[in-house]
Please model this.
Amino acid sequence: MKKLLLGDEAIAQAAIDAGISGVYAYPGTPSTEITEYIQQSESATERAIHSRWATNEKTAMEAALGMSFAGKRALVCMKHVGLNVAADAFVNAGMTGVNGGLIVLSADDPSMHSSQNEQDSRFYGKFSFIPILEPSSQQEAYDMVYSGFELSEKLGIPVLLRITTRLAHSRAGVQTRPQKPQNELNPSDDWRKWVLLPANARLRFKQLIQEQELFEQMALESEYNTYTDGADKRMGVIACGIGYNYLMEHFPAGASFPVLKIAQYPLPKQLVAKLVDACDEILVLEDGYPFVEEQIKGLLGIGVKVKGRLDGTLSRDGELNPDNVGRALGIAPASVYEKPEVLVGRPPQLCQGCGHRDLYEALQEVMQNDHPASHRIFSDIGCYTLGALPPFRSIHTCVDMGASVTMAKGAADAGLYPAVAVLGDSTFTHSGITGLLDAVNAKSNITVIILDNETTAMTGGQDSAGTGKIEDICRGVGVAADHIRIFVPLRKNYNEMMQVIREEVAYPGVSVIIPRRECIQTLKRKK
Amino acid sequence: MKADIILAGVGGQGILSIAAVIGEAALANNLYIKQAEVHGMSQRGGDVQSNLRVSDAPISSDLIPLGKADLIISLEPMEALRYLPYLSENGWLVTNSEPFINISNYPEMESVLAEINRLPRKIILNVDEIAKASGSVRSANMVLLGASLPFLDMPVEQIEAGISRIFGRKGDAVVLANQVALRAGKQASEELIQK
Model:
């Protein structure tokens, strides 16, 4: 019997079956469930597969590369914006190449269901000169990962697996395959490959450029890239990843026009040329940015008529769905009923009983009373970002992991007072520590509130790297011990909380306040 | 056989258990299935939905196109309305009548119910009450699934087997309570249809 698996779970199962020795990741929607599945898998435990969460995506990427260096297979997973954090290691992993097979999974979030932007990871793959796989189904995701480690070892290069939210968080029946053994320990001795001194790196880069032809040849021969002919040559369609599903939804018996399905890159020129030669115009369906469309169209758009996201046939932003793809094909949606006017929105909110609520109430009261016009709250990525919405409306910024501390520092350096940073324990260890060190060294006048709920809550309660160590870390980077203040954010401690906030905001230097109370969700689950 | 179902509710209400039970039943009967879920930020008390597609032929899209859903199953009455543009002409709406009010601008209950009552094919049930009467307050979602069975081309025995597999780890008592709730919902729904 097939297994009913999320796209994320299919990838995890395939990685276990393909003989990985470790998965490295920091939680991030929609990629989190991959690592969680491996952590909970009995067969992964039996095989002693490393699956502990990493502190951030960069440490994850580097550890995975280290495992590959040692000759074993590794999977590293992150959400799209996590790839920005891992980018230094990721791009240079293209330069070093790999020893054991290495798959880098980046889960994009078009329509920004749980993200700050819609960036398309395929650009990172091209930027790093490495092959990209983009599955159209859960089964294809399984198959690509199952054989992807061999592809990586054969080419000696990391492979980027790019998925989007809909595949990550959609279930389907998946046929699994027999488990392969793990690789033996076999560390690389090839220093010219792994020591990226300029002299070595120049050689590596020349080689990487030469290999592009081979990578494209692999994409041309890939079983995942298919050309299906059709009699009606007025239009040909290029459908990438899950864009293919939305196309075929409208043609269950097969399309009347030629269709080029793309799921492996670099874009195989021969297949694209075949379609362009045969058809009057081309429609490109791709989830994310117009990655393929731009390549085919070129800057001037001469020679071939291309429709897609750039000419308005499809919206420039937002994810694909069967309806907007249908419209692009000239098929009107079949809606019968409209959304009634009585309906109102129901945005997400901080849980009832969450300690963040208590902190925001106290912080808001102090700021509104003492510094109504001058204060600014620099926040960060996590549940507490919901402090931007009513009834709190407390925070003024949320940009990227760790930016609360450093933006507060920059604003304080500019003369802003009070500059308050609000971030969670997991975000602090992910990317806040270095910023705090900057602030200590510069003696910046900021107050950093580290909401310590002892978990990575927004993504569902994964282990947090700094649990039990937060105040030690702050002391270690040089925050004065008497300006590291801890309290329990509860209604009954309201006056104490306001008092502490007042004192530390008044202190002209770096102070850290740690409201510490377990996440209400993880607490409920223990009961 | 083909069923395109939208499951609706508020984050934390338990729509995914309904999806999991139907999914298990479908897979055990060699049907094709695709089920798109919402994870992440919306699960914190926001509106959530799941697109569940079951068919004896391969399914392309993970998402149901506008106007193509055979069934909307909602644990919350206002949330039931959110997905009306997806309901097909002959589609049914099965919803809990009890509101989940965690927003300050929740509309008047009468106007929400009036919108639901305008539909030609709907079942409105107080599933919380039926769950309580059947002896398991926590099985309201299985009552709702039971109430949807008359519109699903799947035998109740298969759904019950699905419940056994999904809740099996929690023990026989939990499995039984959910199966009883399922039957109670099915019966309540059938009584409404006959009226």
Remarks:
- Chain B touches chain A through 55 residues (CB under 8 Å).
- Residues 93 and 122 of chain B are 5 Å apart (CA to CA).
- The first helix of chain B runs from residue 15 to 28.
